[in-house]
Amino acid sequence: MTFPKTQAAAAAFGLAAILPLAATAATLDTRLIASGLSQPLYATSPVAGGPVFVLEKGGTIKAVSGGVSSNFLSIGVTSSGEQGLLGLAFDPGYADPASAGFRRFFVNYSDPSNQDTVIASYRANANGLTADPASRVEVIRIDQPSFNNHKAGWIGFKPGDANNLYIATGDGGSGNDPLNNAQNTNVLLGKMLRININGDDFASPTINYAVPTDNPFVGVAGTRGEIFATGLRNPWRSSFDRLTGALWIADVGQGQREEINFIDAASPGGQNFGWRLREGDIATPGGVGGPLQPGMVDPMLVYPRSFGASITGGYVVRDTSSVLYGQYIFGDFVSGRIWTINGDGSAQTMANATDLTAVLDSGAAGALVSIASFGEGPGGEIFIVDFGGKVVQVVPEPASVLMMLSGAMALLLWRRRSAAQARRD
Ligand SMILES: [Ca+2]
Ligand SMILES: [Ca+2]
Fold first, then answer.
1. What is the pLDDT of residues 256-311, one digit of tens each?
2. How far is the CA of 324 from the centre of ligand 2 (A)?
3. Spatial separation of the C-alpha atoms in residues 58 and 55, rounded to whole Å
4. Which sequence spans correspond to the domains of the chain?
5. Average pLDDT over residues 161-182
6. How many A from CA of 290 to the centre of ligand 2?
7. Which of 80-102 are b and which e, b meaning 16 or more Cβ less than 10 Å from the residue's Cβ?
8. What predicted TM-score, i.e. pTM, was given to this entire model?
9. 232 CA distance to ligand 2 middle (Å)
10. Nearest ligand by distance to the CA of 177
């Protein structure tokens, strides 16, 4: 156990400094879930008491159970640049034998033969620790240009909706979105998509989904009905608030601004988040930028390069045992910093963000270097994925440390009493 720097400092100042910290983020610690992973990009755990599943960029899903990692599934991918095995979502019916989605999960990866983004489903075996490669069903394939960056890759289900899979896509790559994909509502790149994985509008055996009739562009000529929101550059990690159903989309900026976008749970979609015209809250520098257009939405949070250079979106913490409950936790891949902001969906600034970097870096699981992703456990537990090879869980400070602090406080008070006694003597 590494003694948290902030609490060690607090202990030196005695009781008055410790008590206010007891109810803040200084009571956080980290617990190692897995280490020795190869470029992990995501972690999730769909079933209470079950394994934590970790994505490795090169194409393997690891199942971590009781501290032991084993291969759940390996998929052939290209992992050049920002391509690879990028997204994983367990069907809401994964643990329900009566569900069409029993033991089913979805992956998002880069096809090694042509760089296409592929969403496919597989089924776990009955042991829950391995998956059946032969169960593969291709759901949707998204044509990609030859650039090897901006593939995004998050996929997920909105709480309470077992039919529609949300898919975050990047603009396809290079600088300034050269093909102008993100603003083109006739292509699936630079978007948040929403498709019904329990329907099938296509006779093709390799296209297996339906377009939800309540999607915002359905029936609009020259558009793709799969689109839920537009104007994204490289949305690196999105999440649904498991309590409210709000959708949080972190979008990686080009050279100036990192941003978080917010979609209220009741929204029918159709938001335009501005890229490539807008980088965060400014006109994109370099010739393609301009003022906010009617119908475009500014981010709910932006930050400049002084904080970091590649945002990693996180989660609104809904673990009721956490001091972070109700806060949105996120980080930056380049600077390695981690913050929380108010998770109620109101506009935020970095001036009212809480920087958790020092306390989490001081946790039992060691420093966190490259924040590749966050993840959620079955009870809303928060995982942090370090691209260097480990997954940690954010946990409360163990009781033993609080007891150590109590001991330190008692010692300080005893010394003060002794010193005062000595002066009187
Ligand atoms: Ca089909
Ligand atoms: Ca934007």
1. 999 999 999 999 999 999 999 999 999 999 999 999 999 999 999 999 999 999 99
2. 27
3. 9
4. 30-395
5. 98
6. 12
7. eebbbbbbbbbbbbbbeeeeebe
8. 0.89
9. 6
10. 2
Q: Which residues surround ligand 1, an ion (CB under 5 A)?
A: 200, 202, 208
**CATH topology for the 30-395 domain:** Neuraminidase (2.120.10)
Between the CA of 139 and the centroid of ligand 1 the distance, in Å, is 8
**pLDDT tens digits for 31-78?**
999 999 999 999 999 999 999 999 999 999 999 999 899 999 999 999
Q: Within 13 Å of residue 76, how many CA atoms lie on the same side as its CB?
A: 7
Cα(71) to centroid(ligand 2), Å: 37
The ligand minimizing its distance to the Cα of 234 is 2
